Amino acid sequence: MMLIFMLTGAAHAEQDVTPGRESELRQLVLHDCGACHGMTLNGGLGPSLSAESLANRDVAELREVILNGRDNTAMPPWKQLLSDAEAAWIVQQLQDGGLVSR
Predict the structure, then answer these.
(1) Is the pTM of this model over 0.85?
(2) Can you tell me whether residue 20 is helix, strand or coil?
(3) CB 37 within 8 Å of CB 44
(4) Which of 8, 48, 85, 99 is deepest in the core (most CB within 10 A)?
């Protein structure tokens, strides 16, 4: 039952992000995240955010990192600026390769 909730929750989360907000989130990822993860998101101070590098990573874990950051690293928490649904959308887009600059 929990798995069903998690799957429907992820699908619902994507629906909560409006097209206008999607554009803002793309800019945030490419510019703010790109400052550490590289402008093409293939790595820099922070690790690569390519679809290949994130393919086998747990969505909930990645969403947690986005929202709460990582202690003792340069990864800040974004929970003051992003909702859970927005963080889930970013993870999905990164895993699908939809945000990586080409």
Answers:
(1) no
(2) helix
(3) yes
(4) 99
Residue 13 structure tokens: 């989360």
The one-character DSSP state at 100 is: -
Residue whose pair of structure tokens reads 């986005």 in the numeric block: 66
- Residue 93 CA to residue 83 CA, distance in Å, equals 15
Q: Tell me the per-residue pLDDT of 65-99, one tens digit each, with 9 for 90 and over.
A: 999 999 999 999 999 999 999 999 999 999 999 88
Q: What CA–CA distance (Å, rounded) separates 26 from 23?
A: 5
**Exposed/middle/buried for 74, CB within 10 Å: 0-12, 13-18, 19+?**
exposed
The 3-class secondary structure across 34-94, one letter per residue, is HHHHCCCCCCCCCCCCCHHHHCCCCHHHHHHHHHHCCCCCCCCCCCCCCCHHHHHHHHHHH
CA distance 82 to 87: 6
